[in-house]
Amino acid sequence: MEPFNGSLANYRLQLVMPPLFSAPGVEGVLSVERGAVRRCFHVKDGYLVGESSNDPREHLAQILVNLRILDAPRAAAAFEAAEGAGMPYGTFLVQRCFVELPRLIEALEHKARESLFDCYAWESGEVGFTPGLPPSARAIGLKLSLSTLHRDAVSRQREWSMFRDIFPRMDTTFRVFREFAVETYSEEEDVLLDLAASGATLGELLASAREAPLFAARWVLHLYRRGALAPRKALGPRLGEAAELEELLTLVKRFLEAGQYDHAVALAAQILEQGPVPEAHALYREAEIRLTLALSDELFALDGRLVFEPIPRPTPPDLTADDLYLYSKLRGSRSIRQALRTAAMGELAASRSVHRLMASGLIRVAPLPGSGPRRAHTDPFGLPIHGVGS
Q1: How far apart are CA 332 and CA 77, in angstroms?
Q2: Secondary structure of the chain in the HEC alphabet?
Q3: Is residue 140 assigned to a domain?
Q4: Locate the PatA-like N-terminal domain: which residues (predicted)?
């Protein structure tokens, strides 16, 4: 590819990215800049092989804390020590045994993915491509498929579009009904509910996220669907939609009665895209709880038995960025329950993600202690003893 520079108002990343992985032998640096934030993505032969950002929120130490790989004091102490030793932070962490290499690569890949995904939403700023890669400043390289990253980024854009259809104004404020959040209580939900109760706007709720704003948006949407957050100036179903609404609500009830909780959750969520409907909120809560219990009870029983296989490089294309994010969260959590209830995708989606990870072979279940084949009784000379107990 030839070098180019342009405005994101005309060349959104969704248009710029495909030629970087569809054309053979492309190698260079894709730079994206908006305001004071500048990010660089190193691409080679269809892969993202390096990433850098000057945004303090994307510092590797913060990512390690977010993924529960290191706690905040230990991450900060390691950074100071690495600075004092004049070593790259990642290299220092591995050499001094703060973090195992596979876990560090997980964090670096998560950092690169979220940084790139965020740029897809930028509608202003500058974008450019410079052929050729500079001498690598990082001892640990990446290898993420650009086509897979593009697929996930476009999927997230659709997710954002649906969210903005429901909440078109960033200055929206909410009424809080905590009784509808109790069933799936988490620290993240509690923070958002406290902010909303204090009068925070939707924009402020999204800005409170420790990680990507989309993660906070998912929590807000989840709380809205359960009826725990209600927009103060909510739009309800338009005139003439009442009959259709009744039919849809009746269909949700039929799905519930038939045990088709997945369909009930999806249809209730579809109704709520049109505006708050008390009965739809109640049906969504019931269907979600039943489906979550069906999916997660089996998983909760596997605490202490999950074995994590190394993620192959490049990562399997059938797994999404959310699956890989949850993989890291599971490895850093005290229990499966904690990981599922703190996952930004919500407990229901996280349960499905675990099953995908198990189907892919990245997570397997160790047998229960003592469940292996029984050994035959032998005498001191190693020969089987017959008639024991006779």
Answers
A1: 19
A2: CCCEEEECCCCCHHHHCHHHHHCCCCEEEEEEEECCEEEEEEEECCEEEEEEECCHHHCHHHHHHHCCCCCHHHHHHHHHHHHHHCCCHHHHHHHCCCCCHHHHHHHHHHHHHHHHHHHHCCCCCEEEEEECCCCCCCCCCCCEEHHHHHHHHHHHHHHHHHHHHHCCCCCCCEEECHHHCHHHCCHHHHHHHHHHHCCCCHHHHHHCCCCCHHHHHHHHHHHHHHCCEEECCCCCCCCCCHHHHHHHHHHHHHHHHCCCHHHHHHHHHHHHCCCCCHHHHHHHHHHHHHHHHHHHHHHHCCCCCEEECCCCCCCCCCCCHHHHHHHHHHHHCCCHHHHHHHCCCCHHHHHHHHHHHHHHCCEEECCCCCCCCCCCCECCCCCECCCCCC
A3: yes
A4: 27-161
Domain-ending residue, one of 123, 150, 177? 150
Residue 307 lies in a domain: yes
> What is the model's pLDDT at position 182?
61
Range of the domain at 340: 302-363
**Per-residue confidence (pLDDT) for residue 335, from 0 to 100:** 86
Cβ atoms of 248 and 239 within 8 Å: the answer is: no
In this prediction, residue 162 carries a pLDDT of: 92
Task: Give me the pLDDT at residue 140, please.
Answer: 64
Q: Which of 112, 117, 122 is nearest to 37 (CA)?
A: 122
Name the stretches of the chain with pLDDT < 70. 136-140, 182-185, 233-243, 370-390
* Residue 27 falls inside a structural domain: yes
Distance CA 18, CA 202 (A): 33
CA distance 109 to 383: 55
Task: List Cβ<8 Å contacts ≥24 apart for 337-345.
Answer: 337/296, 337/300, 337/303, 340/296, 340/299, 341/184, 341/185, 341/186, 342/186, 342/187, 342/188, 344/188, 344/211, 344/212, 344/214, 344/215, 344/216, 344/218, 344/219, 345/218
CA–CA separation, 342 and 184 (whole Å): 10
Domain boundary among 118, 150, 182: 150
Which amino acid is present at 324? Answer: L
Token pair for residue 203?
A: 């924009």
The pLDDT value given to residue 108: 92
**210 belongs to a structural domain:** no
pLDDT for position 315? 84
